[in-house]
Write a structure and sequence with these properties.
Layout (H helix, E strand, L loop, with lengths): L6 H55 L5 E5 L5 E5 L3 H4 L7 H9 L5 H6 L2 H8 L3 H14 L1
Antiparallel strand pairs: 1-2
């Protein structure tokens, strides 16, 4: 086998080519990451725009009060106007999340809220019974 005349030059060339390769790889990764980040920011801006448009459309749709039909124990049918979550939020301890949970469970008015037992309310809102009792006490103050 033939021996190299100057092995230091070979090693230096090998290290230099490795360094150039690493620099080129790093530059490629950093520029592609920047482009990816810019693309992600553009998509986020488009999503935020669509979300604002949907919220605006939903706000206009909520301008009309919703109605629901209830059947009393006497067999009489009554049509009532559903309150918005903001009406239930007047009760201390009920925020937007709890108001939406209540409406999903079919509780639309303060009267319906007061008909709930603390156990039922705690189950719907996923809270402790003592907190449900406090919410019912605050709702009773508003009636």
């Amino acid at each position: 086998m033939k021996q190299l005349k100057n092995p230091k030059t070979f090693v230096l060339g090998l290290v230099f080519s490795l360094l150039v390769t690493v620099i080129a790889w790093y530059w490629y990764k950093s520029t592609s990451a920047e482009e990816g980040a810019l693309d992600l920011l553009d998509r986020m801006a488009q999503t935020e725009t669509r979300l604002r448009q949907a919220q605006t459309a939903a706000g206009q749709a909520e301008a009309e009060p919703a109605r629901y039909i209830s059947l009393d124990s006497n067999g009489t049918v009554s049509v009532k106007t559903a309150v918005t979550p903001e009406d239930l939020e007047r009760v201390k301890g009920i925020g937007l999340v709890f108001a939406r949970r209540l409406q999903a469970a079919g509780v639309y008015t303060l009267d319906q809220l007061l008909q709930q037992s603390p156990e039922e309310l705690a189950l719907v809102l996923d809270i402790y019974e003592w907190r449900a009792e406090a919410i019912l006490a605050e709702a009773q103050k508003l009636v």
